[in-house]
Amino acid sequence: MLNKFLIMSLVLFGGCGGPSALDVGDLAPDFALTGSDGKTHRLSDFKGKQAVVIAWFPKAFTGGCTKQCKSFSANGTELRKFNVAYFTASCDPLEGKKGNANFAKSLDADYPILSDPSKETAKKYGVVSGVWPLPRRWTFYIGKDGKILKIDKDVSPSEDGANAAKTLKELGIETKQ
Known about the structure:
Blueprint: H1 2-12, E1 32-35, E2 40-42, E3 51-56, H2 63-74, H3 76-79, E4 84-90, H4 100-107, E5 113-115, H5 120-124, E6 139-142, E7 148-152, H6 160-170
Parallel strand pairs: 3-4, 4-5
Antiparallel strand pairs: 1-2, 1-5, 3-6, 6-7
């Protein structure tokens, strides 16, 4: 029984059976995801220009995810002081009643919420793997050079936006002039 529990825990939490984990210093996987603003956002479009924050959340219109996305709007003034593009992202569809476009509208989000319904990008980032069907709540900080500067795997939903602003300062991300 203990062995069965241990094996299931490893699979669920990425210890085995999933893609190799990304780490600080790794080149972040490129993505092309449609945002709630109707635009396709590509990591490669920001290379050499801006740092990028992508905060993954499990499911639109749920309690913790609502708090997390609201925290980015609530801290938008602080975040926009930095030369950074920031997004939240999930594997929810863009359109439809429970899609990210409606989710962003319901929150009056002042930034794009990205949709990855194929889970292709989520798998590359390791937030979806094995039998783990929903994205883990992890926030990635990516430098202008495209390399991962930090991965926050201990996200407090209601504090993620404030923590992002604090982390950008700690990482020395340039501010806008």
